[in-house]
Amino acid sequence: MLKKISVSELRLGMHLHELCGSWLDHPFWKTKFVLRDPADLEKLRSSGVAECWIDASKGLDVEAAAAPEARPLDTPKVETVPMPRPAAKPEAASAGRAELREELERAGALIKQSRRAVMSLFSEARMGKAMDAEGCAALVDDIASSVT
Fold first, then answer.
1. 55 with 17: CB under 8 angstroms?
2. What range defines the domain where residue 96 resides?
3. 97 domain residue, yes or no
4. Integer CA distances (angstroms), 72 to 54, 69, 125, 126, 137, in order
5. Could you please report the per-residue DSSP string of the chain?
6. How far is it, in rounded angstroms, from Cα 2 to Cα 17?
7. Considering only CA atoms, which of 109, 89, 88 is closest in space to residue 101?
8. Are residues 58 and 10 in the same domain?
9. How big is the chain by its Cα radius of gyration, in Å?
10. How many domains does one find in the chain?
């Protein structure tokens, strides 16, 4: 059963069916999911969304969620200490820097080439000329291969 509620009434375990408002106002890429993470609940409450639809048949209902949650009374706190990382070998670090520098140079050249191609496409479109699809496809392939 769908119910429209205020975001302030949301609780963990509720199934979100739809968020009211623009998709730009909320921090999620999907709107139909069960709220399980307290961080997601906090993100939603601090977003610009005021109301939402819940599906009580797929998650908790408003009345069922109003009951206080059972929490452990005395939970011992465990302090975690990060493990020290082994020192990187100087040769490996300088080789990594050289590879990164080369990749950045290739990316810069690809950006310049892409910018020229897009400007040319817009110019040709303004003049009513047909677009060169093969040239665009080759450029898209170059861009895709540079990020993988």
1. yes
2. 90-147
3. yes
4. 28, 10, 66, 68, 59
5. -EEEEEGGG--TT-EEEEESS-TTSSS-S-S-EE---HHHHHHHHHSS--EEEEETTTS--HHHHHSPPP--SSPPP----PPPPPPPPHHHHHHHHHHHHHHHHHHHHHHHHHHHHHHHHHHHHHTTPPP-HHHHHHHHHHHHHHH-
6. 8
7. 109
8. yes
9. 26
10. 2
Give me the tens of pLDDT residue by residue for the chain, a chain 148 residues long: 889 999 889 899 999 998 887 777 777 777 788 999 999 889 888 888 889 999 989 999 987 555 555 555 566 666 666 666 666 565 555 666 778 888 888 888 888 988 888 888 888 888 888 877 787 888 888 888 877 6
Q: Does 94 lie in the same domain as 137?
A: yes
* The model's pTM: 0.42
User: Token digits for 88?
Assistant: 């990187």
